Amino acid sequence: MNGDSCELELKIRAAKLRPTRQRIALADLLFSGGNRHITAETLHSEALEKGVKVSLATIYNNLHHFTEAGLLREVIVDASKSYFDTNTSDHHHFFFEDEGKLQDIPADLMSVENIPNLPNGMTIASVDVIVRVKKNDAN
Amino acid sequence: MNGDSCELELKIRAAKLRPTRQRIALADLLFSGGNRHITAETLHSEALEKGVKVSLATIYNNLHHFTEAGLLREVIVDASKSYFDTNTSDHHHFFFEDEGKLQDIPADLMSVENIPNLPNGMTIASVDVIVRVKKNDAN
DNA sequence: ATAGCTGCAAATGCTTTGCAAGGCC
DNA sequence: GGCCTTGCAAAGCATTTGCAGCTAT
Question: What positions of strand C are covered by protein, i.e. any atom < 7 Å from a CB?
């Protein structure tokens, strides 16, 4: 375990969740090393590699709990699986289609101009920009 | 059938596909009435309502064929289902989360500024902007 | 004739759920 | 003790696939 486990516990407690062994381990993997973009599968593998026994169901439960608590943000880029981003601030993404990897683009770097007005009674929930990137065609 | 079936056949032929009964019917539903945003399910229902017997598998096959042929564009907004857009030109989307409906935003109206440089050997496949919209919170 | 299509049903892959056993406060 | 969590296995859902029979060219 790399993260300060006391700090992790506080983070979990702040989210009104119980600091169970599994949750602390997952929080450590997620929050102890800069911004990360992970899927349920990759998080599961990482946990098992570190010798942490967690079931996939628990991974899903907690990814959702963390998301509801505002500790994670779901990024929808792929029709077949969900990505979760530990960076919850306003920003956008590169998506490397060949590898299925995400990379942050700070919101102050790239911006969206002139969003049209919304119908009455509606609000913007979020503005998601995904720059899909691929290898050059081999010509 | 509303569309000019001769025109539809030409469109299908141009995509190097055979103008079968099912394909013509689907093309009619898709391309004979302005821009549309549909899912496999909705297209299937519409076909059945019009009395066109088509299986879901065929719907999926043809949505993909049309997409590969550049007649449709897949829009990824929802983790659980795929949307297809009959507008293949460069543009963006509002997504009404409560109803699961899409609406086009012309690219010349709203724009993305300052896309960062890409690593060498990489190209932009597309820039997708999704403005997620929800009903105002009832305060 | 033959290559391509269709439809069904079975299979897949990711995600969710039900429920009994275990852990935190 | 009581409620939240976990883990397993089963269920769920959108989508894909295998394959036998049909259809356009």
Answer: 4-9, 13-18, 23-25
CA of A44 to C1' of C18 (A): 22
Q: Which domains does chain A have, with CATH numbers?
A: 3-84 (1.10.10.10), 90-133 (no CATH)
pLDDT of residue B137: 75
pTM of this prediction exceeds 0.85 = yes
Extract the tokens encoding B44: 């299937």
Is the minimum distance from the CB of A100 to strand C below 7 Å? no
CA distances from A111 to A62, B12, B91, B103, B112 (A): 32, 39, 16, 21, 6
A121, B136: Cβ pair inside 8 Å? Answer: yes
Q: CA A31, CA A35: separation in Å to the nearest integer?
A: 8
Query: Is any atom of strand C within 7 angstroms of residue A50's beta carbon?
Result: no
Phi, psi at A87, each rounded to 5°:
-90, 110
Query: Each residue of B71-99: pLDDT tens digit?
Result: 999 999 999 999 999 999 999 999 999 99
Dihedral-angle region of residue A91 (phi above 0 means left; psi in -120 to 50 means alpha; beta otherwise): beta
Residue B1 in this model has a pLDDT that exceeds 70: no
Are the C-beta atoms of B104 and B93 separated by less than 8 Å? Answer: yes
Which of B79, B82, B112 is closest, CB to CB, to A112? B112
pLDDT at A7 over 90: no
